[in-house]
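Raw record, unedited: General secretion pathway protein F
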Amino acid sequence: MEFRCRLATATGQVSEGTFVADSEAALRRELEEKGLYVLDLRAAHRGFAGLTRARGGRIKQHEFLVFNQELATLLKAGMPLVQSLEILRRNVPNPVFKAVLDDVYDKVRSGTALSDAFEAHPRHVTPIYTASLMAGERSGSLEQVLRRYVSYVQVISAVQRRVVSALVYPAVLTLLSFAVVAIIVVRVVPEFNEFYKGFNAQLPLATRVIVAVSATIRGQILLIALAMAGLVIGARWALRQPEQRRRLDRLVLGLPGIGTIARQFATSQLARTLATLLGGGIPLVTALDVASRSVSNRHIAAQMADITRQVREGQPLSAAMAAKGEFPDVSVKMVEVGEATGALQDMLNAIADFYDEDIETKLGRFLLLIEPILLVVMGIVIAALLIALYLPVFQLSSALS
């Protein structure tokens, strides 16, 4: 990596230059060993917190969890935090993750708290993680907090994998259906049209419609491709706009069937995040603020921001949730019971477990229903196309008879 540095010597001379080093921390140590004073040091192409990001690089969830498990193990064995970070950062193959750990190690060694050191990398570290670290530092139980965070991520990831796996087959089946129809319309229909031209007879209405659609698509294929590409690019741009993403998430919540599952998933994600933060000693208002930023549904996240404000003003969490009307009644009642009995964390975990199981059951039922429907629809469409194509042959056979 290249870094732009502004240096000063012991005699007071100031100079600027570009240096190449593996990390900011390594370059800073090298310059200080030469007796130079680092006035300013930043990446030539600044990424996050002064570190350049490798092209296409990212921190994989698995390696981040392994790091936290190993860090918890070393801390449990009694090894100091700085020494633990020094050991772990040496064995990280991912250059992006290694750059982050080098910077974290350098900050912690200079006296910065571990939570503050990781908070300097918001593109790679979630607010839940930094809040958990802060709770562990305040309570003196950093090792237990790290293990609790790892368990939390594993549970959330397992639920997400089950949801994605359940939707893969219907998605593949739908794509195959479109592909088969496209091949018939673009490749097969023109061949039949050329064949029928030799009879100099008027084709049936259904056949003429299909031939006209095929000719339009073949004649405007470039325009259609450009329109589809523009639609995809526009959709991606719109989804990156917070307000548009919030409207889409709100629309999804209103869909029959799918909206219920999406609402339950957001509730489960919120409940488990809150339980994890409360278990680490984070105050309820702070935990609500962090948890609202972790919810994937932007509409629910926006509602949680208002709920957080109401709780800060003294209103019970269950009452604030009930007033919004965005959460299932069961979850609101369970939160109310948790607040009344002083077991809010346990009740939140129970809510998450309940909805995780319910989501899996509903997804199973959804697949049992959607798979045969997709097969029937695909069969009807393809059969209609084939009948329309062969209808002139049937009529010709009848005429010859």
